[in-house]
Specification:
Elements: H1 2-18, E1 34-41, E2 47-53, E3 71-76, E4 81-84, E5 92-95, E6 110-117, E7 120-127, E8 134-142, E9 154-161, E10 170-177, E11 180-181, E12 189-192, H2 212-216, E13 230-238, H3 240-253, E14 271-272, E15 281-288, E16 290-296
Parallel strand pairs: 1-15
Antiparallel strand pairs: 1-2, 2-5, 3-4, 3-6, 6-7, 7-14, 8-9, 10-11, 10-12, 10-13, 13-16
Length: 298
């Protein structure tokens, strides 16, 4: 009886393998789109906007081609105009601070960005929102299995940050290990009122502390800090549409596995000034205030 069952199982498995078909679909070539990476801050240092052409989803062996020859201007609500110049013709358009204008603006300043390329102008708006202060930073040694620990023993940075009163403050928390940004998709650390998302916010009349998982995400669980390492943390204020945009970006970057959905471009906040334009553009414009603090593991 056992031999009979084994024979039946063998032919069932053989049938499944015989039904396997390798498909090599022919995809239509993608149309390159203007891509605008316009995340800038009010820090007193040069600010850069990068223009490139998009590439196909499967063309991951090449870098997106840079776009030169465009005109980029940033105007604020105080009638200041900032010109971004591509001096090296490499797609990096930079504004340089001056003694009279050391930074782009303060919290509350609103901006309109204009990008003109191939005789067509695309515009987007943003505002510099408030950002909280990192009150303190420290570190502690944790073993595997400890609360907040990782896959290896090591040092983990701790922080104390308190959100503002009232709902609707959005942030990105960027962490650098020895000047290298922790940039894996799962390390895109976003917060709404000090928690993960809008539905969890309860911050109406009291300034609440950021929750532990948000603060602990400045650490790499697989590569904890060692003595001599440095950690720098930046908290950047975001507009709420930017927060929503980055959530979609993270979903696309982590979209995989058995239940993955077809990849798609995320929305943009740029629009063409040409009536009935059929041109498409991807990318985003956001202005941020930044609070920074660093610590060395000793």
């Amino acid at each position: 009886m056992k031999k009979y069952l084994l024979v039946v199982l063998f032919f069932i498995l053989l049938g499944f393998s015989a039904c396997e078909t390798v498909i090599n679909p022919q995809l239509n070539p993608s149309v390159p789109l203007l891509t605008i990476d316009a995340f800038i801050t009010n820090e007193a240092k040069p600010q850069t906007i990068r223009l490139t052409k998009s590439i196909g989803f499967l063309d991951n062996k090449e870098q997106p081609p840079a776009i030169a020859g465009a005109t980029i201007q940033l105007a604020d609500n105080k009638n200041n105009v900032f010109n971004f110049i591509d001096e090296k013709k490499d797609g990096n358009y930079t504004w340089q601070p001056t003694a009279m204008m050391p930074r782009l603006g303060e919290v509350g300043t609103t901006f309109k960005l204009s990008v003109t390329y191939n005789n067509e102008t695309f515009v987007a708006d943003s505002k510099i929102n408030r950002v909280p202060t990192i009150d303190s930073m420290g570190y502690e040694f944790r073993k595997v299995g400890d609360f907040g620990g990782g896959t290896k023993d090591g040092y983990f940075v701790t922080m104390a940050v308190k959100d503002f009163k009232g709902r609707g403050d959005c942030y990105r928390i960027k962490s650098y290990k020895n000047d290298t940004l922790l940039a894996a998709p799962q390390q895109l650390n976003l917060s709404y009122d000090g928690v993960f998302n809008k539905g969890s916010s309860v911050n109406d009349t009291v300034a609440l502390k950021f929750i532990f998982p948000i603060l602990n995400n400045v650490n790499d669980r697989d590569k904890p800090y060692k003595k001599g390492d440095k950690c720098k943390v930046e908290i950047l204020s975001l507009t709420e549409p930017t927060f929503d945009f980055l959530i979609l970006v993270q979903e696309q970057q982590t979209n995989g596995g058995l239940f993955a959905t077809p990849p798609a471009n995320v929305p943009t906040n740029f629009k063409s000034l040409t009536p009935n334009s059929k041109s498409k553009v991807v990318g985003w414009f956001c202005t941020s205030a930044v609070n920074t603090r660093s610590i060395e593991i000793k």
